[in-house]
Write a structure and sequence with these properties.
There is one protein chain. By secondary structure, the chain is mainly β. Helix content is about 5%, strand content about 55%. The protein is built from 2 helices and 18 strands. The protein has an 18-stranded antiparallel beta barrel. The longest helix is centred in the first third of the chain and has 11 residues, at about 15-25. The chain is globular and about 60 Å long.
Length: about 400
């Protein structure tokens, strides 16, 4: 019942991510040389009550990667990403141009998105260099795959298979290359210097996977993004009737407070609870995510994914009073699992106080025509009531992949 819009909501699939690392270390200890080519075209149509003009963003991304094995367990990987705006720029790409169009944060540019040396065997995996960092459901650390420019980190990462059911991860991160791309006009927006320690433990249980983590992040470029984050995740799935149906769940409890050179003093709570119940071709989901706020500071998700959470339209930078997102939806498959669809409703209000933040309806369909070519259609309609402007967006994505991207 694992449904997954690759660049949208990770509904129905993300709870398996916790055990994927251990399986990878045990089943694929050797590197093999291979090339990767990825081409993605996205057409975005944007309508907002704030602007008189309708926005159109036509962007094309090209990614070229090469993994070179060195013996059985060593490898080097390099990947370039280029993004071009086609047919004019009838949208605000956040690059500082004066425009009266709605925004889609995909400015043109080119960058070296990966460049690392790695070692892997059945018990450990180590990488040094520029790489993607993805943890759990990617809320707190992600490559932000929905954006045309991926987010990557410079540093050292290590994962250790301590027992068949226990995986320890430690990363030291010195820099983050953000989703505005390597040619963005503001250097302090395209690249942040960090002193970050990431400690993460996964433990397989008789029922599900439990993850515990501590992230200590000192940001020397933008001190407001310095923080300490501690959390626990429990995820799993079960079938009570020999596979005819399936339950799955996710429970996340976390706390974020000021750390290092942070100019703000805060102590904020986070939780997410989600339940899924699925039959053969359709699954229902419901849940709640709460990002804390104290009236002065909102929960910080500067290094994580946004689009798969709190609505596709992307209205929210987390308000100072926090954000509560109650959501429910359906997703499923047809056409012999070659096509997936989903429908999700979000109701937003403040985590601190009684302010209403509106609601959003998201709908999407993904068709995997061949092993290399797919098309995706997403639509999000946000109604802000008195909090923000009403707006909606429609995305058409065409994607071709050759080879396997090394993540």
């Amino acid at each position: 019942m694992a449904f997954n819009f690759r660049h949208g909501v990770l509904a129905g699939g993300f709870w398996l991510a916790g055990s994927a690392l251990g399986q990878e270390l045990q089943q694929s200890p050797r590197y093999e040389s291979e090339a990767y080519l990825g081409v993605r075209y996205r057409d975005t149509t944007m309508v907002s009550d704030q602007f008189h003009r309708r926005g159109h963003a036509h962007t094309a991304r090209l990614q070229l990667g090469w993994l070179q094995a060195i013996g059985s367990h060593w490898a080097v990987y390099a990947e370039m990403t280029g993004l071009w705006s086609l047919f004019g720029r009838e949208y605000d790409d956040t690059s500082g141009r004066v425009t009266d169009y709605p925004s889609e944060a995909d400015p043109p540019g080119k960058e070296l998105s990966n460049a690392w040396l790695g070692y892997r065997d059945r018990h450990a995996e180590i990488r040094i260099g520029r790489q993607y960092i993805r943890l759990d459901n990617e809320r707190f650390f992600a490559r932000n795959g929905w954006r045309q420019h991926p987010q990557s980190f410079d540093g050292f990462s290590s994962r250790w298979q301590l027992t068949p059911t226990t995986v320890l991860r430690y990363d030291w991160l010195g820099q983050v290359h953000r989703t505005v791309g390597g040619d963005f006009f503001d250097r302090d927006q395209r690249r942040w210097h960090l002193q970050a320690h990431v400690l993460h433990v996964e433990q397989g249980l008789p029922l599900g996977v439990l993850s515990a983590y501590v992230y200590l992040i000192r940001n020397t470029t933008r001190a407001v993004n310095s923080m300490r984050l501690r959390g626990l995740d429990w995820s799993g799935q079960a079938s009570p009737d020999q596979g005819r149906s399936q339950f799955s769940w996710l429970a996340v409890l976390a706390r974020q407070d000021s750390y290092g050179n942070s100019p703000r003093h805060f102590d904020l709570a986070y939780h997410q609870f989600e339940l899924n119940y699925g039959l053969k071709t359709i699954t229902a989901r419901m849940g709640e995510e709460v990002l804390g706020g104290d009236g002065r500071t909102g929960f910080n998700i500067a290094y994580g994914a946004g689009h798969p959470f709190d609505g596709w339209v992307g209205v929210f930078s987390i308000p100072v009073n926090g954000l509560r997102d109650r959501y429910a939806g359906l997703h499923g498959e047809f056409g012999g699992s070659r096509c997936s669809w989903q429908l999700v409703y979000h109701h937003f209000d403040a985590a601190h106080g009684h302010s209403a933040y509106g609601h959003e309806l998201d709908a999407g369909i993904l068709a995997q025509w061949t092993s290399r070519f797919s098309t995706e259609l997403q639509y999000g309609h946000y109604q802000g009531r008195n909090f923000s402007h009403d707006q909606h967006k429609l995305w058409l994505v065409l994607e071709y992949r050759y080879g396997r991207q090394t993540l």
